[in-house]
UniProtKB/TrEMBL annotation:
Protein name according to UniProt: Glutamate-1-semialdehyde 2,1-aminomutase
PANTHER family the UniProt entry points to: GLUTAMATE-1-SEMIALDEHYDE 2,1-AMINOMUTASE, GLUTAMATE-1-SEMIALDEHYDE 2,1-AMINOMUTASE 1, CHLOROPLASTIC-RELATED
Keyword annotations from UniProtKB, A to Z: Pyridoxal phosphate
Swiss-Prot/TrEMBL cofactor(s): pyridoxal 5'-phosphate
Keyword Mitochondrion found: no
InterPro entries: Aminotrans_3, PyrdxlP-dep_Trfase, PyrdxlP-dep_Trfase_major, PyrdxlP-dep_Trfase_small
Family stated for the protein in its record: Belongs to the class-III pyridoxal-phosphate-dependent aminotransferase family.
Gene Ontology MF terms in the entry: pyridoxal phosphate binding; transaminase activity
Amino acid sequence: MTDPGIPPRTFARSRAMQDRLHDLVPGGAHTYARGSDQFPEFMAPVLVRGQGCRVWDVDGNSYVEYGMGLRSVTLGHGYQPVVDAVTRTIAHGVNFSRPTELELAAAEDFLGLVPAADMVKFAKNGSDTTTAAVRLARAVTGRTKVAVCRQPFFSTDDWFIGTTAMNGGIPAAAVETTVRFDYNDLTSVAAALAGDDVACVILEAATALAEPQPGFLEGLRAQCDSHGTLLVFDEMITGFRWSAGGAQGVYGVAPDLSCWGKAMANGFPLSALAGKREYMELGGLRTEEDRVFLLSTTHGAETSALAAFRAVVHAYRTQNPIGLMEAAGRQLSTEITAAVRDAGLDYYVEVLGRPSCLLFATRGPDGQPSQAYRTLFLQELLRRGVLGQSFVTSAAHAAADVDQTVAAVTEALVVYRRAIERKTVEGLLEGRPVAPAIRRTAEPRYIARA
Ligand SMILES: Cc1ncc(COP(=O)(O)O)c(C=O)c1O
C-alpha cells in the first residue's frame, strides 16, 4: 500500500493520543468538526503547534493547513502583531470588575468597520450571538416564530440544533416555532412570512457555494420591512473573509442585526452581536421598555481577545489580507482544476467556491458525492503533507505553499484515478470513510477502542 516515492509518515503518537482523548473527551475533540471521524481512521493528527499556514503534529509531521481553525485564523498562526498585542495586554490583567478603555476602543474599531450597526456587544462564541439576535427579535416584535435559511449552521443552541439530525435531548417545542426558507428563493421567503408572525429572518448573506442572485438580498430586505420582521445576517464566516465589513460590506444590503465571530481576533475567542440602536438599546439601560437579556458573560470582555481583535483591525486597515487569501485561493483553484483535467478526473474532483473560502467536491465512479472517495483524497493529501477538509486559505498561504499543495494534489489524483478505474477504494483506503459531523448515530466503528 505504501507508495515507495513518499517518505513514510508515522501517526503512532497521534493514534495513541486520539484514543486517550476518546477516553477523556466525548467524541475525542471539543468541536465535532475537529473530530477523528472527520479524518482518515489512522491519520487523525494531534497537533502541537502552528506557524503561518503550517502546523506540526505529535509525531513531528508538518503540514500546509487549510481551514485554519474552522476559518477563525485569517492572518496565519502565531501572527506576530497579534501575539505582541495580546502579550503586552494580558501582562496587565485579563478580567476586571468594570469595563476597560480597551472595550470602548474595540467597540469603536468594530463600528467603524460595520456602518449598518450603531451598537455592538461582545461575547465569546458565535452561537451566543445568533441566539441573542433571535431573542432580541422576539422581544422587539412580540412574535415567537423565526425563519431560518436552509444553510449549514447557525448555533449550538436548541432553536437550531433541534432542527438537525442530532436533536437528542431537545424538546420538540424548541423548534416548533422555527420555519425554513431556501436561499436565493424569494417565493419561499414570502411563504414563510405570509402570516405576519415571524420575528426574524436569519441567514448567511452568502456562503462559499452560493452568492446572492441579483435582487435576492434587496427583495429579502423589502419583504422583512413589509411584514415587520427583523433581518439578521450571520456574518460568522463572511466577516473578515468576504470583507472586513462582512457580506453586508460587499453586497450593500443592511441587516437590522448581525452576528460575528470566527476570524474577528485571528483565532482568539471573540464574537459580537451588532445592530441598530433602536433594537440593541433594549438590552441596555437607556430604555423605557422592558429590558432584554441580550448577552452578559463573565468572559465577554476579557482583554486578550479584544487586544487580538484590535491588532486584527489594524492589519486589515494597513494591509490587504483578503487580497492575499483570495490570491492564494485563485492560484489553488486554477492549478488544481488543471491538474484534475490532466488526470482525466474532470467532475470527479472539483474545487468550488469563493477564492477565500474554497471547498472541494469528491465524487465516486457513479458521479455521486462520495465520503469514501473524499477520505481517500484526504488520506493521500495527509501522506504528502497537506491537512485540510477544505482549501480555505489565509493571508499566510504564499505561492510556495500553494505550489507544494498542488504537487501533493497532483500525486493524490493518481491514486484517486486508480480508485475510479477500479470502481472501488478497497485496497487503497485504509480504514473507514469519514461521515458528516452532525449525524444521528455514532456507528460502532467510530467508538471502537484500541
Ligand atoms: C455560519 C455559522 N454561524 C454560527 C456558528 C456558530 O459559531 P460558534 O461555533 O462560534 O458558536 C458557526 C460555526 O461554525 C457558523 O459556521
